[in-house]
Amino acid sequence: MRLLYNNFLYDATQYPDPYVSSLSDIKGLLKQVIDSAIISPNLIRIKNEDIVFDVLGLSRYLRNTTKGKKPKDDAEACLNGIFLQTFLRYSGIYAEILSQFELSENDANLIRNSKCKVFAISTTFVPDWSKVKKVSQFIKKYCPEAIIIVGGPLAFLLKISVDKESRNKIVSSLSGLVNAIITEENGELSLLCILQNIFSGNAIDQIPGMISPIKNDVYFYNNSDTCHLNTHFIDWSNVFLPENINTVAIETSRGCMFKCKYCSYSKFHAYKENPLELLRKEIRSLKGKEGVKYISFVDGTLNGNSKRILDICKILIEEKLNIPWHFMGNVKGLSKQQAMLLAESGCEFANIGIESGSNKLRQLMGKPIENNQQIIESFQNLHDSGVISRGFFFVGFPGETEDTVQETIDLINSMPIDLFRVAIFRPRMNSYIVENNMKYSLEGRGYLWRHYSMDSVEAAKCVKEIFLQTKPKYDPNRGVYELMMEGYSRNTAFQINEMKNKLSQKVNNGIFSEAQKGSYDRLFKRLKNTVNEFDPSSS
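^ thats the sequence. predicted structure below, dont judge the formating
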């Protein structure tokens, strides 16, 4: 069973589980989880039509069907390609970005006619190796002599969390297509070494930090001399951005300073900060950059260092960039002063990880939040400053019960939060919780698991209940922020999202009956009119 949702492919066969007896059981359980935890809160089915949309897709569909215009593509520049391009250019190697995994006939012509014969594939946001294989086949079709190098998070997982048999199977499937797989966390120097060997005519099959699919040999080593952010900055004035791109990503630090038990990120990504003077130069390079309307700070926790976030805000104010931005952060340190400086410097969206409304459960997670009062005060500070707040929660950590879920519902309904998102807990390889799975009676992985207090099917139902029992402030994947990037005003984006939530809640409550369809139809008509009052495609 393969389910496509928001460009991510879920394959039931990828989640073998010790307590599931057959593939049919896996399919049935996985469907229950995805229906409750993903489809119900995030998507809306158009009545009398076999079409399901997220809120951004729905707005595009309604505009397209009423005005006959082609919707815009997603509008954020992917940082991984731009960062690698900048790094290689600083190292004296010319590089161009070909595509963001959406290859077209135009890309085929570029590959066919290009003098370049070396192609690097980054696996950031790529869910499985089948997509890497497909892209590699596409490249080889139009350039049979191409040398293909693969790196990024998916490749790094081969080193840290894939058993030898599975790794060999993956690597063998790429033989004849891929020449090298870089398995380092920060593999820029390994990539540079491979390229230098290629250009000098030397072999590349024994470079430390990579796998050779040709020989299926593995050369793992601890690459402590990784390319760090303080070596260079991205000069956006020299970066080509297509017309549909209006958002740029900036990274001021890597890694995470916290050690939450559900996450493995800090284990493999030591926290490192980029010198603020380089950030200032990068900000200056954006001045006058045509088409840039938003900045996305992609640090794991931008405000983790309370003094540093104030310095970042001051740089943005001093440079008078006047471009709205958003960030991911933590409740800790969100004082009135910080919130006011965030607003003054142009911050429009604050994405804050809360995880649970239960103090006890957050303590079990190792989440650095003192109590619910600290959360409420921090979100009040954001509200008072005019910064849109979006809280992130998940359901199912060991110790989760109906009572702790109710605490989350109560917190969401009582706090001054603008938007929230809730997901199902997924055991992450190499996290504390998985490495100590016996302590929690934890079995399974992915979307199919169980432990001493809950299983994934129960957790998915709780996600759905949180969506149904809270105010219509749920922000689905590709929701309010994406609508604002599309060109809708802040108020209109919130109205569209709220109406979508109400429609989804009505469907979840079974209101498709003839007797009650009037309320759905009226709300849907209102949503349609709101979407079309302003057409972002004309802006």
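Residues 1-19, 68-74, 216-229 have pLDDT under 50 and may be disordered.
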